[in-house]
Amino acid sequence: xxxxxxxxxxxxxxxxxxxxxxxxxxxxxxxxxxxxxxxxxxxxxxxxxxxxxxxxxxxxxxxxxxxxxxxxxxxxxxxxxxxxxxxxxxxxxxxxxxxxxxxxxxxxxxxxxxxxxxxxxxxxxxxxxxxxxxxxxxxxxxxxxxxxxxxxxxxxxxxxxxxxxxxxxxxxxxxxxxxxxxxxxxxxxxxxxxxxxxxxxxxxxxxxxxxxxxxxxxxxxxxxxxxxxxxxxxxxxxxxxxxxxxxx
Length: 248
Prior knowledge:
The chain is α/β, with parallel strands linked by helices. It has a single domain (about 5-245), classed as Phosphatidylinositol (PI) phosphodiesterase (TIM Barrel, Alpha-Beta Barrel), CATH 3.20.20.190. It is about 35% helix and about 15% strand. The protein has 10 helices and 9 strands. The protein has helices at about 20-30, 70-75, 95-100, 115-130, 140-145, 150, 170-185, 200-205, 220-225, 240-245; strands at about 5-10, 35-40, 45-50, 105-110, 135-140, 155-160, 190, 210-215, 230-235. Strand 6, helix 7 (about 170-185) and strand 7 (about 190) form a beta-alpha-beta unit. The longest helix has 15 residues, at about 170-185.
């Protein structure tokens, strides 16, 4: 069986400030198969990469991303919270990240603004860089995600699933996951490890669909996911993930 794709969540955040150019460059250099990041639109219609909808966790500012212009956002220091060595790092744009790619790296892009103009602008940027075949779009804003294929049917989409209630039997849970993917024309189920089992993986694979293990950060989680033959997983611990997958 092929090895699962390793997706560096926010880049190589153990070594560099999350969601910055150095973090993404490091993840690519170390051998991640994909990099994951969140995209927002600014008050003046530009696209920026930042994990949170709001400011204040990794920079000295308050309020929501969408209330600021690109110039205002790029005046903020997003590196010194991690280490003073990274003082002066700026919030990257979507184009900054898309142009990092080599011929192999993939991009998992979480859409964080729930408007059609935002979606169109993101899809235009992907097409401009010729990356339709190497991008997967995800979002908690399901109506926005469901509209992706109407704009560009070549793009892959992935649905986030929360844990199901304990009373729900596996067969019903599996059916719901499969039917949601089919009804939304999505290709990837993003699932907590607790919701993945061999039967689900087999059932989705039979339909040509993919299984994504969400945020697997321990050796035990990653090895369990490998044994179940999932297709990809996101991680905040890139070095550990690379070791587990390529020693397996």
